[in-house]
Amino acid sequence: MEILESRSEAAVVVHIAGSVNSANVSELAERLRLLISSGCRAMVVDLTRLDHMTSAGLRCLLRIDKQAQEAAGKLVLCGLHGLALELFEVGGFVEMFTIARSREEAVREAAAA
Known about the structure:
113 residues; Transcription Regulator spoIIAA
């Protein structure tokens, strides 16, 4: 898994590439928690380059979404496609997250919170 970060005036975009699983999910969780604790209130997780995500990754995103809400922030996902999108749909996670069609839309939605 590779985690890249970019910032705009409106939001922080976290790009996840590769696979998220139980072996590396703690790295992702810590990175996202640090953003929230440092005052980031508008966060986008871009999954365009995600190859695979296990249930550990889904749990991580659910926890981070809750933490962002508790900190008066907003987490928006974008770039879901292929098997990752199917996993979100079959598992009923599409209704649990704010999911945007594009990175630009995600940034707007996150910043509006």
